[in-house]
Give the backbone structure.
Amino acid sequence: MNLKENVDYIKHEMGTQEEFLSGFFKLEKYYKKYKNFLFIIAGVVVVLFLGNIVANYIKDENTKKANIAFNKLLIDKNDKEALATLKETNNLLYNIAQYQQDKSTKINDELQFLKQLALYSSQPNLDLEQIDKLLKDENLLLKDYLQFRKALILTKNGEFKKAKTAMKFIPKDSPVAELSVLLSHYLSTK
């Protein structure tokens, strides 16, 4: 019996090894058949992996450059080099920087307008000389209003030709254009 058990054991082991070898040969057959396809897939996976690493590195570097440039712009709003760097590296931060610059410019314009309005309203009885002096300022935002006021004063004084001439300097798209049209109609009767 001992010998019979050994023979059965050897048959069983040989059957297991035979199955393993036949499976290995099948695998080798598939490998030979699809070898090129497998190499292409492996190459694509490696390229995608390396491309992802490089893209993340470039993105991180651009983010660092953009943050440094934005910090420079927060310190000095007129830094053209930092603005150009922002435009190249991060469009969103560039738009924010542009908005801040436009906003500060708009605030400065509004402050200038308020100063001129305060100056204009603090002197309600301006005469023609003072109005002419104010109109010589190229940056005057209330120029149309002062021009209309000058025409009104000239009309009150009976100087209708000078009033008509003063009305010609008021643009058609001015907020006082409607008033100037009314005054022009009045002056056309004189």
Notes: Residues 15 and 37 are 33 Å apart (CA to CA).
